[in-house]
Amino acid sequence: MAQVEHLAERTPQVSTDELLKGFFPSPRFGEVSFDSYRPDPAQPSQAKAVSAMRDFAVAVDVPEPTGLRKLFGARKPDSKAGFYLDGGFGVGKTHLLASLWHAVEGPKAFGTFVEYTNLVGALSFRKTVEALSAYKLVCIDEFELDDPGDTVLMSRLMRELADAGVKLAATSNTLPGSLGEGRFAAVDFQREIQVLADQFDVVRIDGEDYRHRGLPQSPDPVSEADLNDRVAEEFSGKVVADDEFATLINHLSTVHPSRYRQLIDGVDAVAWHNVTTITEQSVALRFVVLADRLYDKDVPILASGVPFDQLFTEEMMNGGYMKKYFRAVSRLTALAREGQTGEAA
Protein backbone atom coordinates (compact mmCIF):
# COMPACT_ATOMS: atom_id res chain seq x y z
CA MET A 1 0.00 0.00 0.00
CA ALA A 2 1.09 3.55 -0.66
CA GLN A 3 1.47 5.99 2.20
CA VAL A 4 -1.06 8.68 1.34
CA GLU A 5 -0.63 12.30 2.39
CA HIS A 6 -2.19 15.57 1.24
CA LEU A 7 -0.32 18.64 0.04
CA ALA A 8 -3.37 20.69 0.98
CA GLU A 9 -2.66 19.87 4.64
CA ARG A 10 1.01 20.96 4.55
CA THR A 11 2.15 24.45 5.62
CA PRO A 12 5.97 24.43 5.52
CA GLN A 13 7.99 27.09 7.34
CA VAL A 14 11.37 27.97 5.83
CA SER A 15 14.10 30.04 7.47
CA THR A 16 16.37 32.48 5.67
CA ASP A 17 19.34 30.13 6.16
CA GLU A 18 17.38 27.30 4.56
CA LEU A 19 16.61 29.51 1.56
CA LEU A 20 20.29 30.35 1.09
CA LYS A 21 21.36 26.72 1.44
CA GLY A 22 18.89 25.66 -1.23
CA PHE A 23 20.67 27.28 -4.17
CA PHE A 24 22.06 24.22 -5.90
CA PRO A 25 20.80 22.08 -8.80
CA SER A 26 17.77 19.92 -8.13
CA PRO A 27 18.18 16.13 -7.81
CA ARG A 28 17.23 15.82 -11.48
CA PHE A 29 20.48 17.61 -12.34
CA GLY A 30 22.47 16.54 -9.31
CA GLU A 31 25.07 14.51 -11.21
CA VAL A 32 24.97 15.87 -14.75
CA SER A 33 28.10 16.93 -16.59
CA PHE A 34 29.18 18.24 -19.98
CA ASP A 35 30.05 14.64 -20.87
CA SER A 36 26.54 13.40 -20.06
CA TYR A 37 24.91 15.94 -22.38
CA ARG A 38 23.95 14.26 -25.65
CA PRO A 39 23.92 16.78 -28.50
CA ASP A 40 21.49 16.12 -31.31
CA PRO A 41 23.63 15.42 -34.42
CA ALA A 42 21.03 17.25 -36.50
CA GLN A 43 21.57 20.41 -34.43
CA PRO A 44 25.26 21.46 -34.55
CA SER A 45 24.57 24.46 -32.30
CA GLN A 46 24.17 22.04 -29.38
CA ALA A 47 27.73 20.70 -29.63
CA LYS A 48 29.01 24.26 -30.05
CA ALA A 49 27.19 25.31 -26.88
CA VAL A 50 28.83 22.50 -24.91
CA SER A 51 32.27 23.61 -26.08
CA ALA A 52 31.56 27.25 -25.23
CA MET A 53 30.32 26.33 -21.75
CA ARG A 54 33.42 24.23 -21.09
CA ASP A 55 35.57 27.26 -21.93
CA PHE A 56 33.47 29.47 -19.67
CA ALA A 57 33.88 26.99 -16.79
CA VAL A 58 37.66 27.28 -17.15
CA ALA A 59 37.39 31.09 -17.11
CA VAL A 60 35.29 31.04 -13.92
CA ASP A 61 37.99 29.08 -12.11
CA VAL A 62 40.78 31.48 -13.19
CA PRO A 63 41.32 33.81 -10.22
CA GLU A 64 41.15 37.55 -10.79
CA PRO A 65 44.61 39.19 -10.65
CA THR A 66 45.37 40.99 -7.41
CA GLY A 67 48.23 42.99 -5.94
CA LEU A 68 51.35 43.15 -8.12
CA ARG A 69 49.83 40.80 -10.69
CA LYS A 70 46.98 43.26 -11.21
CA LEU A 71 49.33 46.28 -11.17
CA PHE A 72 51.62 44.86 -13.83
CA GLY A 73 48.84 43.64 -16.06
CA ALA A 74 48.57 39.92 -15.47
CA ARG A 75 46.60 38.41 -18.33
CA LYS A 76 42.90 38.04 -17.57
CA PRO A 77 40.69 35.43 -19.20
CA ASP A 78 39.17 36.41 -22.54
CA SER A 79 35.64 35.39 -21.59
CA LYS A 80 33.02 37.93 -20.62
CA ALA A 81 31.42 38.29 -17.20
CA GLY A 82 28.24 36.57 -18.24
CA PHE A 83 27.06 33.67 -20.38
CA TYR A 84 23.52 33.42 -21.74
CA LEU A 85 22.01 30.33 -23.35
CA ASP A 86 19.12 31.17 -25.69
CA GLY A 87 16.90 28.42 -27.03
CA GLY A 88 13.58 26.63 -27.05
CA PHE A 89 12.06 24.22 -24.57
CA GLY A 90 13.77 20.94 -23.74
CA VAL A 91 17.03 21.43 -25.67
CA GLY A 92 19.16 20.88 -22.57
CA LYS A 93 19.93 24.42 -21.40
CA THR A 94 19.36 23.58 -17.74
CA HIS A 95 21.51 20.46 -18.14
CA LEU A 96 24.37 22.61 -19.43
CA LEU A 97 23.87 25.28 -16.78
CA ALA A 98 23.96 22.64 -14.03
CA SER A 99 27.03 21.08 -15.67
CA LEU A 100 28.74 24.45 -15.45
CA TRP A 101 27.85 24.69 -11.77
CA HIS A 102 29.28 21.22 -11.11
CA ALA A 103 32.43 21.96 -13.10
CA VAL A 104 33.64 24.96 -11.10
CA GLU A 105 34.83 25.37 -7.54
CA GLY A 106 32.66 27.23 -5.04
CA PRO A 107 31.33 29.28 -3.52
CA LYS A 108 28.58 29.23 -6.13
CA ALA A 109 24.79 29.41 -6.44
CA PHE A 110 22.26 27.81 -8.77
CA GLY A 111 18.59 28.70 -8.85
CA THR A 112 15.70 29.69 -11.06
CA PHE A 113 14.77 33.28 -11.80
CA VAL A 114 11.76 32.93 -9.49
CA GLU A 115 13.87 31.53 -6.67
CA TYR A 116 16.18 34.55 -6.80
CA THR A 117 13.29 37.02 -6.78
CA ASN A 118 11.87 35.12 -3.80
CA LEU A 119 15.27 35.36 -2.10
CA VAL A 120 15.27 39.13 -2.54
CA GLY A 121 11.78 39.23 -1.06
CA ALA A 122 12.93 37.25 1.96
CA LEU A 123 16.27 38.96 2.59
CA SER A 124 15.94 42.42 0.98
CA PHE A 125 17.83 43.47 -2.13
CA ARG A 126 20.90 44.77 -0.33
CA LYS A 127 21.37 41.67 1.84
CA THR A 128 20.96 39.45 -1.21
CA VAL A 129 23.71 41.39 -3.01
CA GLU A 130 25.96 41.11 0.05
CA ALA A 131 25.37 37.36 0.34
CA LEU A 132 25.93 36.55 -3.35
CA SER A 133 28.83 38.95 -3.93
CA ALA A 134 31.10 36.48 -2.13
CA TYR A 135 30.32 33.82 -4.77
CA LYS A 136 32.46 33.00 -7.81
CA LEU A 137 29.52 31.95 -9.94
CA VAL A 138 25.78 32.66 -9.91
CA CYS A 139 23.61 30.58 -12.26
CA ILE A 140 20.10 31.83 -13.08
CA ASP A 141 17.90 29.29 -14.82
CA GLU A 142 14.81 30.28 -16.80
CA PHE A 143 15.37 34.03 -16.93
CA GLU A 144 11.93 35.53 -17.46
CA LEU A 145 11.00 38.67 -19.39
CA ASP A 146 7.25 38.64 -18.83
CA ASP A 147 7.20 40.58 -15.54
CA PRO A 148 8.80 44.04 -16.01
CA GLY A 149 9.24 44.63 -12.29
CA ASP A 150 11.01 41.35 -11.60
CA THR A 151 13.10 41.69 -14.77
CA VAL A 152 14.37 45.11 -13.71
CA LEU A 153 15.04 43.76 -10.22
CA MET A 154 17.10 40.86 -11.53
CA SER A 155 18.89 43.06 -14.03
CA ARG A 156 19.98 45.33 -11.22
CA LEU A 157 21.04 42.35 -9.10
CA MET A 158 23.10 40.91 -11.94
CA ARG A 159 24.70 44.29 -12.63
CA GLU A 160 25.81 44.69 -9.01
CA LEU A 161 27.09 41.11 -8.84
CA ALA A 162 29.06 41.59 -12.07
CA ASP A 163 30.56 44.78 -10.63
CA ALA A 164 31.64 42.72 -7.62
CA GLY A 165 33.50 40.28 -9.90
CA VAL A 166 30.93 37.47 -9.84
CA LYS A 167 30.66 35.40 -13.03
CA LEU A 168 27.06 35.02 -14.22
CA ALA A 169 25.31 32.42 -16.35
CA ALA A 170 21.66 32.46 -17.39
CA THR A 171 19.22 30.53 -19.53
CA SER A 172 15.88 31.47 -21.01
CA ASN A 173 13.33 30.02 -23.39
CA THR A 174 12.50 31.24 -26.85
CA LEU A 175 8.78 30.93 -27.40
CA PRO A 176 7.88 28.15 -29.83
CA GLY A 177 6.29 30.66 -32.19
CA SER A 178 9.41 32.83 -32.18
CA LEU A 179 12.01 30.23 -33.10
CA GLY A 180 14.02 31.39 -36.08
CA GLU A 181 12.55 34.91 -35.95
CA GLY A 182 15.60 37.01 -35.20
CA ARG A 183 16.44 35.47 -31.83
CA PHE A 184 13.89 37.61 -30.06
CA ALA A 185 14.68 36.09 -26.66
CA ALA A 186 18.32 37.18 -26.80
CA VAL A 187 17.38 40.64 -28.10
CA ASP A 188 14.84 41.15 -25.33
CA PHE A 189 17.28 39.88 -22.73
CA GLN A 190 19.98 42.29 -23.83
CA ARG A 191 17.58 45.23 -23.98
CA GLU A 192 16.42 44.60 -20.42
CA ILE A 193 19.97 44.46 -19.06
CA GLN A 194 21.52 47.20 -21.14
CA VAL A 195 24.44 47.79 -18.80
CA LEU A 196 25.36 44.10 -18.90
CA ALA A 197 24.63 43.44 -22.55
CA ASP A 198 28.19 43.85 -23.79
CA GLN A 199 29.47 41.65 -20.96
CA PHE A 200 27.43 38.61 -22.01
CA ASP A 201 28.33 35.91 -24.48
CA VAL A 202 25.02 34.86 -26.07
CA VAL A 203 24.91 31.30 -27.43
CA ARG A 204 21.94 29.95 -29.32
CA ILE A 205 20.85 26.29 -28.92
CA ASP A 206 18.52 24.96 -31.59
CA GLY A 207 16.49 21.76 -31.44
CA GLU A 208 13.19 20.22 -30.47
CA ASP A 209 11.95 19.46 -26.96
CA TYR A 210 13.88 16.30 -25.99
CA ARG A 211 11.00 15.30 -23.69
CA HIS A 212 9.00 14.54 -26.84
CA ARG A 213 11.84 13.60 -29.19
CA GLY A 214 10.98 10.12 -30.41
CA LEU A 215 8.60 9.47 -27.50
CA PRO A 216 4.85 8.81 -27.61
CA GLN A 217 2.32 11.53 -26.92
CA SER A 218 1.27 12.18 -23.34
CA PRO A 219 -1.07 9.44 -22.11
CA ASP A 220 -4.72 10.21 -21.55
CA PRO A 221 -5.73 11.09 -17.99
CA VAL A 222 -6.56 8.21 -15.68
CA SER A 223 -10.26 7.68 -15.08
CA GLU A 224 -11.46 8.75 -11.66
CA ALA A 225 -12.75 5.23 -11.04
CA ASP A 226 -9.27 3.76 -11.61
CA LEU A 227 -7.12 6.43 -9.98
CA ASN A 228 -7.02 5.05 -6.43
CA ASP A 229 -6.33 1.50 -7.67
CA ARG A 230 -3.48 2.75 -9.89
CA VAL A 231 -1.93 4.65 -6.98
CA ALA A 232 -2.05 1.57 -4.75
CA GLU A 233 -0.60 -0.71 -7.43
CA GLU A 234 2.10 1.50 -8.94
CA PHE A 235 3.35 3.34 -5.86
CA SER A 236 3.21 0.66 -3.19
CA GLY A 237 5.48 1.52 -0.26
CA LYS A 238 5.95 5.09 -1.44
CA VAL A 239 4.68 8.43 -0.17
CA VAL A 240 1.94 9.74 -2.44
CA ALA A 241 0.46 13.22 -2.16
CA ASP A 242 -3.19 12.60 -3.04
CA ASP A 243 -5.34 15.71 -3.48
CA GLU A 244 -8.54 16.95 -5.00
CA PHE A 245 -7.31 19.40 -7.61
CA ALA A 246 -9.62 22.25 -6.62
CA THR A 247 -8.60 21.91 -2.97
CA LEU A 248 -4.92 21.91 -3.86
CA ILE A 249 -4.98 25.04 -5.99
CA ASN A 250 -6.90 26.87 -3.28
CA HIS A 251 -4.30 25.82 -0.72
CA LEU A 252 -1.43 27.07 -2.87
CA SER A 253 -2.67 30.62 -2.32
CA THR A 254 -1.82 30.24 1.38
CA VAL A 255 1.77 29.04 0.83
CA HIS A 256 4.45 31.39 -0.53
CA PRO A 257 5.98 30.00 -3.75
CA SER A 258 9.43 30.13 -2.13
CA ARG A 259 8.21 27.26 0.06
CA TYR A 260 6.90 24.96 -2.66
CA ARG A 261 10.14 23.00 -2.63
CA GLN A 262 9.53 22.18 1.03
CA LEU A 263 5.82 21.64 0.35
CA ILE A 264 6.66 18.53 -1.68
CA ASP A 265 9.55 17.39 0.51
CA GLY A 266 9.55 13.61 0.94
CA VAL A 267 6.86 13.06 -1.70
CA ASP A 268 7.54 10.22 -4.17
CA ALA A 269 4.51 10.73 -6.42
CA VAL A 270 1.36 12.82 -6.68
CA ALA A 271 -2.23 11.94 -7.54
CA TRP A 272 -4.67 14.66 -8.57
CA HIS A 273 -8.40 14.08 -8.73
CA ASN A 274 -10.64 15.88 -11.23
CA VAL A 275 -8.12 18.23 -12.82
CA THR A 276 -9.90 21.18 -14.43
CA THR A 277 -8.78 24.05 -16.63
CA ILE A 278 -7.41 26.93 -14.56
CA THR A 279 -9.09 30.18 -15.54
CA GLU A 280 -7.52 32.72 -13.16
CA GLN A 281 -4.08 34.10 -14.03
CA SER A 282 -2.83 34.36 -10.43
CA VAL A 283 -3.82 30.77 -9.74
CA ALA A 284 -2.17 29.60 -12.96
CA LEU A 285 1.11 31.37 -12.19
CA ARG A 286 1.29 29.80 -8.74
CA PHE A 287 0.64 26.40 -10.27
CA VAL A 288 3.48 26.89 -12.75
CA VAL A 289 5.89 27.22 -9.80
CA LEU A 290 4.59 23.96 -8.32
CA ALA A 291 5.01 22.25 -11.70
CA ASP A 292 8.63 23.42 -11.84
CA ARG A 293 9.38 22.11 -8.35
CA LEU A 294 7.77 18.74 -9.14
CA TYR A 295 9.82 18.49 -12.31
CA ASP A 296 12.99 19.42 -10.42
CA LYS A 297 12.44 16.43 -8.12
CA ASP A 298 11.22 14.12 -10.90
CA VAL A 299 7.92 13.38 -9.13
CA PRO A 300 5.62 11.23 -11.33
CA ILE A 301 1.97 12.23 -11.64
CA LEU A 302 -1.27 10.29 -11.96
CA ALA A 303 -4.29 12.48 -12.61
CA SER A 304 -7.92 12.31 -13.62
CA GLY A 305 -9.86 15.06 -15.36
CA VAL A 306 -8.69 17.15 -18.30
CA PRO A 307 -5.32 16.41 -19.97
CA PHE A 308 -2.48 18.77 -19.17
CA ASP A 309 -2.58 20.42 -22.59
CA GLN A 310 -5.94 21.80 -21.46
CA LEU A 311 -4.73 22.90 -18.01
CA PHE A 312 -4.53 26.57 -19.02
CA THR A 313 -6.96 28.55 -21.14
CA GLU A 314 -6.24 29.30 -24.78
CA GLU A 315 -5.96 32.97 -23.87
CA MET A 316 -3.23 32.17 -21.32
CA MET A 317 -1.34 30.00 -23.79
CA ASN A 318 -1.23 32.92 -26.22
CA GLY A 319 -0.82 35.75 -23.73
CA GLY A 320 2.02 37.58 -22.03
CA TYR A 321 2.92 34.63 -19.78
CA MET A 322 2.78 32.00 -22.51
CA LYS A 323 6.42 31.04 -21.94
CA LYS A 324 5.66 29.92 -18.40
CA TYR A 325 2.61 27.95 -19.47
CA PHE A 326 4.32 26.19 -22.37
CA ARG A 327 7.11 25.12 -20.00
CA ALA A 328 4.63 23.89 -17.39
CA VAL A 329 2.63 21.85 -19.92
CA SER A 330 5.82 20.31 -21.30
CA ARG A 331 7.05 19.33 -17.85
CA LEU A 332 3.72 18.09 -16.50
CA THR A 333 3.25 16.01 -19.64
CA ALA A 334 6.63 14.38 -19.05
CA LEU A 335 5.77 13.63 -15.42
CA ALA A 336 2.37 12.23 -16.40
CA ARG A 337 4.05 9.94 -18.92
CA GLU A 338 6.39 8.75 -16.19
CA GLY A 339 3.48 8.20 -13.81
CA GLN A 340 1.61 6.01 -16.27
CA THR A 341 4.34 4.26 -18.22
CA GLY A 342 7.38 4.42 -15.96
CA GLU A 343 9.42 6.22 -18.62
CA ALA A 344 11.86 8.73 -17.15
CA ALA A 345 10.66 12.29 -17.67
Report on the architecture of this protein.
This protein has two domains: 3-14 and 213-341, Rossmann fold, CATH 3.40.50; 41-205, 3-Layer(aba) Sandwich (Rossmann fold). The strands form two sheets. A five-stranded parallel beta sheet has the order 3-4-5-2-6, with helices on both faces. Strands 1-7-8-9 form a four-stranded parallel beta sheet. Helix 13 links the parallel strand 8 (269-275) and strand 9 (301-305). The protein has helices at residues 16-21, 44-61, 67-71, 93-103, 113-123, 125-132, 148-163, 184-192, 194-197, 224-234, 245-252, 260-263, 281-296, 314-317, 322-341; strands at 3-5, 82-87, 108-112, 137-141, 167-173, 200-205, 239-244, 269-275, 301-305. The longest helix is centred in the C-terminal third of the chain and has 20 residues, at 322-341. The model is unreliable at 66-77 and 175-184 (pLDDT under 50). Helix 2 (44-61) runs parallel beside helix 4 (93-103). It has 345 residues and is α/β, with parallel strands linked by helices. It is built from 15 helices and nine strands. Helix content is 44%, strand content 14%.
